[in-house]
Amino acid sequence: MGGGAGRHHKNRLKFGVVLTHRADEDLENIPNPVWRDQVARRIDSLTENPEAGRQPRYMSGLYSLRASSAGYRIIYRVLEGRRLVVVITIFKERGDDIRTNRPFYIGEKEWGGRMRVRK
Fold first, then answer.
1. How many Å apart are CA 42 and CA 25, to the nearest integer?
2. What is the pLDDT of residues 15-26, one digit of tens each?
3. CA 86, CA 74: separation in Å to the nearest integer?
4. Is the C-alpha dihedral spanning 103, 106, 107, 108 positive or negative?
5. What is the distance of C-alpha 30 from the center of its chain?
6. Which residues contact 44 (CB under 8 A, 6 or more apart)?
7. Taking 80 as the threshold, does the pLDDT of residue 29 lie above it?
8. What is the spatial order of strands in the sheet that 115-117 belongs to?
């Protein structure tokens, strides 16, 4: 008999992933194709492990996930009831505090209707 954990993993429902308009532009604007591919693969991995990132105290309800060897970070929200991951923004860390790099407030109004499904 195989391990129970493997069978459970196969039966687990995957999450959908959508990118806000901003996150889609962020991904397209990564200058190095290797880094862009690393970030895209990391986004795709969220379908099976949406809670891979950490939840900083100062980003209530959001996750932060390191996405490439070049220091890109993904900010996203998990909508558990919809089994959906909403990627809000992607940015390159500059060594200073994540809170000061770029504003990334997300409310329903900001991302509603302006998303692309990640295929």
1. 16
2. 999 999 999 999
3. 10
4. positive
5. 15
6. 17, 118
7. yes
8. 63-66, 72-79, 84-92, 16-20, 115-117
pLDDT per residue as tens digits for the range 88-105: 999 988 754 444 444 444
Strand, coil or helix: what is 78? strand
**Contact at 8 Å (CB) between 56 and 82?**
no
Kindly list the domain boundaries of the chain, sorted by start residue.
13-109
Is the pLDDT at 74 greater than 60? The verdict is yes
Whether the Cβ atoms of residue 75 and residue 56 lie closer than 8 Å to each other: no
Q: Which CATH class is domain 13-109?
A: alpha beta
Amino acid at 1: M
For residue 87, give the nearest of 14, 16, 13 by alpha carbon: 16
| H runs (alpha helix) in the chain | 4-11, 21-28, 33-45, 98-101, 108-111
Q: What is the C-alpha to C-alpha distance for residues 59 and 44, in angstroms, rounded to an integer?
A: 22
The token pair at 89 is 């923004």
